[in-house]
Amino acid sequence: MNQERFDDVAKGLASGTVSRGQALRWMGGALVGAALASVPGVAWAANDGNSACAHFCTQTFPPGPQRAECISAAARGEGLCFECGPKATDPTRVLCGQVCCASGESCSDNGQCVTNNICNSQSTELVLCGTSPSGTPEAGVNCFCRPLVEGGGFCATAGVGSCSKVCNTNDDCPRGTACSTWPTQVPGFSGLCVSTCEAGNLGAACVCPDGRNTCPGFGTTGGVCCPTGQSCVFDGIFGTCQPDV
Q1: Per-residue pLDDT band at 33 (split at 50, 70, 90)
Q2: How far is CA 225 from the centre of its chain?
Q3: Considering the domain boundaries, does residue 60 fall inside one?
Q4: End position of a domain, from candidates 28, 61, 83
Q5: pLDDT tens for residues 172-226?
Q6: Who contacts 59 (Cβ-Cβ below 8 Å, separation ≥6)?
Q7: From its phi and psi, is residue 79 left (phi > 0), alpha (psi between -120 and 50) or beta?
Q8: Integer Cα distance of 163 and 161 in angstroms
Q9: Which domain holds residue 136?
C-alpha cells in the first residue's frame, strides 16, 4: 500500500469515518495493524475516544479545513475538544461560536467572550468592571459593578435609561437586564432594570419580557412590567397592574 493510501486510512481512523476492522482488512491484517498503533491518534480512535470529539467538531465547524483540523487536533489530544469540548478537564471554559472562552469568561448574547457579569458590589461606590463588548449598542462604554436587589452584584452599563422599568426581582426585568437597587422613589418597588455589560444596550430596559404589558406613569421611569395575565389600568394619574377581566 502506498503512503498516500496509508495516510488516508489513518486519517479515517482518527476522524471515525473508518473503523479499525475496515482498516485492518484494507491494509493487510495484524502486521499492518501493529504498524498503525504508532500513528498519532490511532490508539485514541481504537477505543472510541474519537466519537465524542468528532461529533463536537462536526457540530462546531462546517465542512472544510477547520473541521478537519479540529478532528486532527483531537486525535493528538489537543484543540477545542480538549479545551472546552467533551474531553475538557476545565469545566469553567465554555465554547463561544468557534472559540473557547478563557476561564472566568462567558459567551455574550452576540457571541463574544466577555468577563462574567458577577462582581463584588459596593453600594457606596461604583467600581469599574470592564467595557461593553464590540457589536453591542454601547460598545466600548465603561461598565460598573452595581448591587442587585436580590443580593450580590453584577456588571452593568454606565447609564440608566429614562424608560427603565421599576422592579423587585430579576424576573421583572427583560432579557439582557437585571434588577439593581436604585433610588426609584416608587412605593412598592425596590429597584430599576439596568442593562448588563454583556448586553450593552440601555434600551433593553425599556421593553417588557414576553407576555407582559408596560404600565407607565411612575415619574421619571418607564413604569412597570405587569405580570402575565394583568394589564395596565389608569386612575387618572398613575397606572396600576390589574388582573385581566
Answers
A1: very low
A2: 26
A3: yes
A4: 83
A5: 888 888 888 866 667 778 888 888 888 888 888 877 776 677 777 554 456 777 8
A6: none
A7: left
A8: 5
A9: 115-207
Rounded Cα–Cα distance for residues 205 and 215 (Å): 14
Number of domains in the chain: 2
Same domain, yes or no, for 124 and 64?
no
Is residue 92, in this structure, part of any structural domain at all? no
**DSSP conformation class of 176:** T
Q: How far apart are CA 68 and CA 66, in angstroms?
A: 5
Grid coordinates representing 30 are: 495484524
Whole-angstrom CA distances from 213 to 112, 125, 193, 206 are 31, 34, 15, 11
Of 49, 59, 119, 48, whose CA–CA distance to 87 is shortest?
A: 49
The cell for 108 is 455574550
Specify whether 26 is located in the same domain as 75.
yes
Locus of grid cell 455574550: 108
Give the pLDDT score at 188: 77
Q: Rounded CA gap, 186 and 121, in Å? A: 23
Domain edge (last residue) among 64, 83, 102: 83
* Assigned domain for 156 exists: yes
pLDDT-wise least confident of 23-37, 39-53, 104-118, 226-240: 23-37
Residue range 52-62: average pLDDT?
Answer: 91
Sign (positive/negative) of CA torsion 68, 69, 70, 72?
A: positive
Asked if residue 213 is part of any domain, the answer here is: no
